[in-house]
Write a structure and sequence with these properties.
By secondary structure, this protein is mainly α. The protein has twelve helices and no strands.
Length: about 210
């Protein structure tokens, strides 16, 4: 699992600090952790986004999309949920389909990580429950976040294609996990699908060359 630096929490070994400081040092690891799927697609490390970058993009998309089109949903819950949904990766790393980790195993690993992480702060159980709600995928908020999470990754793929003017960025990975078609098949929300399809048009010129 490639990272920019070691987990900053290791710098605290043997030190007694405020739980918020310990929590932030743990959280900071997401700034160090590359999105492994991009490295597999040959994005150079100095250009590759981190998991924290992905969370920022997902959170901003959630804010704007929900505020514009889904005013009936609980904005506070949406933002909390989108910000915690990847935090298990602090401990287990950014697993991709090419790691062949069974879904149930991955869930158990991440749940253990989430419980450990949020045991450090007051009201931690609230965030563990939000993570579980996201994973369960039954609430309207969880369903929207899952789709926005996928949309964000597909939009990032489009940006990389445009930046590198390269239609073969995904030639090193199986076709069944190419970001854009994989996402298009799984987006059920009409507005999000419309956004993706419009963005996809931006790379047609590259594909035609």
């Amino acid at each position: 699992m490639k990272t920019k630096n070691r987990n900053p929490a290791l710098l605290l070994q043997g030190k007694k600090v405020d739980p918020i400081i310990e929590f932030y040092f743990e959280l900071n690891h997401l700034k160090q952790l590359f999105r492994q799927g991009w490295l597999q697609r040959k994005i150079p490390e100095d250009k590759c986004e981190s998991v924290a970058d992905h969370l920022f993009g997902s959170a901003i998309l959630t804010l704007i999309i929900a505020d514009s089109y889904y005013e009936s949903l609980d904005m506070c819950k949406l933002l909390k949920m989108v910000l915690v949904h990847e935090l298990g990766e602090i401990y287990i790393g950014d697993a991709t389909p090419r790691d062949f980790i069974h879904k149930k195993v991955k869930f158990e690993w991440e749940l253990k990580a989430i419980i450990e992480l949020f045991s450090k702060i007051p009201n931690g159980k609230e965030y563990v429950n939000l993570w579980k709600e996201y994973e369960d995928g039954k609430s309207k908020e969880a369903q929207l976040i899952k789709q926005i999470d996928r949309l964000e990754a597909a939009l990032q793929m489009i940006i990389y294609k445009l930046q590198y003017k390269d239609k073969n960025l995904e030639s090193s990975v199986p076709k069944n996990i190419h970001f854009i078609p994989w996402t298009e098949k799984r987006l059920q929300d009409k507005k999000l699908l419309q956004i993706l399809r419009e963005a996809k048009e931006l790379v047609l010129e590259i594909n035609q060359k």
